Task: structure prediction
Amino acid sequence: MQELMRSNDAVLISFVDALLNDADIPHFVADVHMSILDGSIGVLPRRILVDPDHLDQARRILKDAELGHELS
Result:
């Protein structure tokens, strides 16, 4: 898996997760439970990891959604 993006914004992570699900792109949202370590204040970013075979397609989807500036 390769990192597509990382963010502290839970809404953004959820939106990108939905975009990738709709496109049937294999991915994983990492660090979801890290809020336990930072006291639930959202300091530690969550990462979206994508199968390397689908990374280019996932990047295009984010760019099409005008989220290219969020890419890792």
Observations:
- The beta strands are 2-7, 27-30, 46-50.
- The chain is about 40% helix and 20% strand.
